[in-house]
Amino acid sequence: MRRASYLFGFVMAVVMLAMAGAIPPPAHASATGIIKRVYTDKARYAPTSTATIKVELTNDSGSTFSGNVNLAIHHLETQLHTDSTAISLPNGNSTTVTFTWTTPSTDFKGYFVHVTAGSATGATAIDVSSDWTRFPRYGYMAEFPNESSTVTDARVQRTIEDYHTNAFQLYDWMWRHENNIKRTGGVIDSSWTDWSGKHTMYWATIQNMISSMHNYNAAAMPYTMSYAALNHYETISGVSPEWAMYEDSAHMNPLGFDFVDNNPDTWLWLFDPGSAGWQNHIYGQYRDMISTAGFDGIHLDQMGERPDPYDYYGNVIDLDNSFSGFINNLRANLDSNGMSDKVITFNNVDGAAEGWAFDDVTSNADYDFTYTEIWGHANDYIELKGLIDKARRNNGQKAVVLAAYMNYEENSGTTYEAESATLSGVSTNNNHSGYTGSGFVDGFGDTGDYVQFSITVPEEGWYGLVFRYGNDTGTNNTRSLYIDGNFVKQIDNFLDQDSWGTWKFDASHTVWLTAGSHTVKLAKTASDTGFINLDSLTLGTFDEDAVRLTSAAIAASGGSRIEMGEGDQMLGHPYFPNRAKQMRSGLKQAMKNHYNFITAYENLLYDKDVFNTDSGSQFVEIAGQPVAGNGTAGNIWHFMKQSDDYNIVHLINLKNSTDTDWRYSDDTPTTLTSLATKVYIGDNESVSDVYLASPDIALGATQSLTYTTGTDSKGKYVSFTIPSLQYWDMIYMKRTFTAPTNDLYEAENANKVNVGVNDNHAGYSGTGFVDNFADNDGVTFTVKAAQDDDQVLQFRYANGGSDATRDIFVDGNYAGTIGFPSTGSWSNWSTSALTVSLKKGIHTVTIWKNAANTGAINLDYLDLDKTYVWQFDRQITSVPAGYRITFRTGASGWVHQGVNNWTNVVDVMMRPNGSGDALLDHETSVGPFTTGTTVDFTFLWDDNGNGILETGTDRWEGTDFEITVS
């Protein structure tokens, strides 16, 4: 997506095409000693195919190395394959050792590859997946210059080898948003100017790039706009204004998007996603780009939240609920045209758990993975996690990719003040606030004026030269850039602002520098225009700590980030060609380790059977350390997940963080050592092994931890010592789960927070019950769902006082609030229930007393019963034997229910369930029933709200219903 407030600074920028085709040295990451680099030949592999692993070695040890290069491949903790090759490598020499491995037959598995040569180590990872969308590692390409196929291939290859990128978004490759491939007389043009009028795109380069991606088993996804067209769309592309959206009901003011560049030809005019005419046109464009260019699907963008507009005929368009229909119709259109294998993703712009259009798309659209660009509604780590959690719940555990631009809103990196530079023809001043340092340079506008900085760079590589400036001249101005006395280019985007006190850092250029000292001169030559004030030069640099913590938070939460591309670039800007910030070698190495890690351990991070536990702090204790489950600064952030076979604990070190806004630079975490840790588990779980893996330790290799088990007042636990925590550790515990008889989970054996266990009131089951259930107290049950089903959570309780309420959370997410009416005595036991949907696998169910809840209860057990749900908008007529039936309605009353022609009639009260849907906020359940039963029922509505069943006064539904049991 493009936004005027953000784009103003970069729409005028020149894409640094001089950089395209310059392939930098590889990142020597995930390797130590004489092993310099380890990588695979493909982005992913089909089951039972051949994977090639290459090990690059350079002997800089001072003596000849003679020995074996050893290879070991693991799936999680299990070693599957070893190999070795003997070499003799004299000092100063280099060689490459190649291994091959036939991948296993099981689909969708990740593998860790560990290589040693003496004391030297190296690592990479292998993804065996027939479909890249299961575990997307989404990268990007944004430059399509006139270059050889060899150069294009090298850009693609380097990104894949270093970061396991298995799909690329080709950003702004097209001619126009509504007419993607430029043709003259029906023949594709060899090149075209892009939508901005600034850059030339070469068709041969686009074709070569897609071919290269396919050669490495990576997908090519074209950036497209779902509902936009450029100026003159009717005459150039045959698009009708009757398909457009308007600000008024009389179609006088078309709805558009202004890039604030004073160029009407870059305006985007927006079209109704629900218009059949628009869909017919743009779907044809999508099919054309797939069949002609060979793309693997469609990456759909949109412009984000805006008030509901009008269509051409004056009807209000429910825009935020229109995209799922657009996507579903596109899916059907592709399927009917022989393109059912093509991928669809859609940008939920400004994503947030409660964001605009988010629920419509993630819940209702038939797309392949969630993609969302983060702006102002998910600023903190915990908000990112909440967004990922919500998307995976809504979309059936599909993958989630975030476009989250690191350090975007800050001018990060080493800064040189202009007032301290070598000056010629200019002056210094401090009469406009907002500058950095002691002032700024002004009077910078006459031919011959210049400011020359003397800089020192720590290593050879790309450096973003970012100039912070002011300009209130009324025109956009230019300056000429010289490096070490040599002219480099004219920078033409010192943009006019609304005052001299408005400082911008969007004028930049990126250059390759050798390590050491250089001069950077910004000069006003005869060909340059206008005056500017100059505040500083910054060597734009990504903050390593912020990037590593954010990468950890996103991956541990179950998401990934579009960030790596163009061989060695990190995406830090919504305009993808912008390279104003660069990674230094330490971050490059860390990102290689990170991508090895998320590829090797993809099954613990992203599998569809991996679910959150409760989000509270009841599961993890670390001796002498502050821990929190909500990602707050100054703590070790912990959260747990569970799969069918593992308990997974993520620890992210925020102890030195001063805030939790992921975008901004952060302090380096202090590495913590010898962390005595206790993790609470469910009573029905049995742990057999405990392992630690981290991208920060041993290149990501798994290590076994010694552990003990026990039980205390909080429940059953596993304890062990973590050797170290730098940024992110993942502990995974191999375990089995034995479901209790009849799925009855005893409260006294569950995980408990601030409650007691007692047996002083008769009638309980098991060995006792939970009491002393006060504010901020709770009980968490770990349960197992045998299959995807709706489940009734029946809580057996006693309440000798007034009516009570409690909140229910499933996997850490609020599920409802239910009542626990008085049972008249603490020895009288009853049940209160809530129906939830559970996927097959291990889950947590927490019953919690918040300050808003009322009353006291004793809790005996949780009974998990599968059920079918009847609603007025979903009137089921049959259920399988052994299932309960849940009735959900929007009003209080009773289900009047019998069986087999109204025998054994009972009246069961429907109680509030805490739902935010006013049509479904009451429920009750009955059953289960045996085969051959007919369940008869109707409703008696408590219109007077007195809670008393009055058959002669209350209102009958007037319709009898029945459900057959088979």
Provide a compact summary of the structure.
The chain has 966 residues and is mainly beta.
Q: How many E strands?
A: 65
Strand proportion: 35-45%
Rg: 31 Å
Main pleated sheet: 12 strands, mixed
Q: What multimeric state do the chains show?
A: single chain
Low-confidence stretches: 1-21
Indicate the mean pLDDT: 94
Please give the count of helices. 11
Shape: globular
Distance between the termini: 51 Å
Strand pairing plus helix content: what structural class? Answer: mainly beta
Helix content: 10-25%
Provide the fold topology:
Layout: H1 4-7, E1 35-40, E2 50-58, E3 65-75, E4 78-89, E5 94-102, E6 109-117, E7 120-128, E8 138-141, H2 149-163, E9 167-170, E10 183-184, E11 187-188, E12 191-193, E13 200-202, H3 203-215, E14 219-225, E15 228-230, H4 233-237, E16 256-257, E17 268-270, H5 276-293, E18 297-301, H6 323-336, E19 343-347, H7 358-364, E20 369-373, H8 381-394, E21 400-403, E22 413-417, E23 422-424, E24 427-429, E25 440-444, E26 450-457, E27 461-470, E28 477-483, E29 486-494, E30 504-513, E31 516-523, E32 532-540, H9 544-557, E33 560-561, E34 564-565, E35 569-570, H10 585-600, H11 602-606, E36 611-612, E37 620-622, E38 627-628, E39 636-642, E40 646-653, E41 672-681, E42 685-693, E43 703-705, E44 707-712, E45 715-725, E46 728-737, E47 744-746, E48 751-753, E49 756-758, E50 769-771, E51 777-785, E52 789-798, E53 804-810, E54 813-820, E55 829-838, E56 841-849, E57 858-871, E58 878-879, E59 884-889, E60 893-899, E61 903-912, E62 922-926, E63 934-941, E64 955-956, E65 961-965
Parallel strand pairs: 8-9, 9-14, 14-18, 18-19, 19-20, 20-21, 21-33, 38-39, 57-59, 58-65
Antiparallel strand pairs: 1-2, 2-5, 3-4, 3-6, 6-7, 10-11, 12-13, 15-17, 16-17, 22-32, 23-26, 24-25, 25-32, 26-31, 27-30, 27-32, 28-29, 28-31, 34-35, 36-39, 37-41, 39-40, 40-46, 41-45, 42-43, 42-46, 44-45, 47-57, 48-51, 49-50, 51-56, 52-55, 52-57, 53-54, 53-56, 59-62, 60-61, 60-63, 61-62, 63-64, ...
Helix pairs in contact: 2-3, 6-7, 8-9, 9-10
